[in-house]
Amino acid sequence: MKRVITYGTFDLLHYGHINLLKRAKELGDYLIVAVSTNEFNEIKGKKSYFTYDERKKLVEAIRYVDLVIPENSWDQKIDDIREYRVDTFVIGDDWKGKFDFLNDYCEVVYLSRTPEISTSKIKSELGLSALKI
Ligand code: C2G
């Protein structure tokens, strides 16, 4: 069984996220998604509209996803790869090069982002940014 892991906030879940998760699952048989906690989002400088529990439920409902775990820090990836016996780490190419150090522990794959959609674009077009949501 080939095990794949990816990480992210996945706020205001949209088809760009789904495109990523679909292709991530195609790289193996079992997909683990580490969803950033509210506290880690603060560290990332992101304020998510949905709480961790809400985002976890949404991601768990996606047919490509087999397990959701919390992402609490930048430093947990190596432990996760070991603990979950991960074969492949995958993430969008907006992170290209940033996680090459994981090559010592598993395959590292950067997938192209879906260009025209983003959570911040949704927020600004709905005028949510002005409401500081
Ligand atoms: N993504 C994508 N296309 C988009 C938007 C997002 O492919 N239009 C991908 C991102 O590249 C990422 C995943 O969807 O792989 C989740 O995106 P975010 O929720 O923005 O996650 P991010 O803030 O990049 O968190 O430790 C890693 C971080 O937690 C990644």
Features:
single chain, 133 residues, five-stranded parallel sheet, binds [cytidine-5'-phosphate] glycerylphosphoric acid ester, alpha/beta, 5 strands, 5 helices
TL;DR?
The chain has five helices and five strands, in the order E-H-E-H-H-E-H-E-E-H. By secondary structure, it is of the alpha/beta class. Strands 3-2-1-4-5 form a five-stranded parallel β-sheet.
Q: What does this entry look like structurally?
A:
- With 133 residues, this protein is α/β, with parallel strands linked by helices.
- It is built from 5 helices and 5 strands.
- The protein has helices at residues 15-25, 38-44, 52-60, 77-83, 119-125; strands at 3-8, 30-36, 67-71, 88-92, 107-111.
- The chain has a 5-stranded parallel beta sheet.
- The longest helix has 11 residues, at 15-25.
- The protein is globular, with a radius of gyration of 14 Å.
- It binds [cytidine-5'-phosphate] glycerylphosphoric acid ester.
- [cytidine-5'-phosphate] glycerylphosphoric acid ester is lined by residues 7-10, 16-17, 20, 36, 71, 91-92, 94, 113-114, 117-118.
> Element order, helices and strands?
EHEHHEHEEH
Radius of gyration (Å): 14 Å
Category from helices, strands and their pairing: alpha/beta
Largest sheet: 5 strands, parallel
What is the 3D form? globular
Counting DSSP E segments of at least 2 residues, the number of strands comes to 5
What compounds sit in this structure? [cytidine-5'-phosphate] glycerylphosphoric acid ester
State which percent range the strand residues make up: 15-25%
- Uncertain residue ranges: none
Arithmetic mean of pLDDT: 95
Largest sheet, spatial ordering of strands: 3-2-1-4-5
How far apart the termini lie comes to: 41 Å
The assembly state of the depicted protein chains is: single chain
**Total of helices:** 5
Helicity range:
25-40%
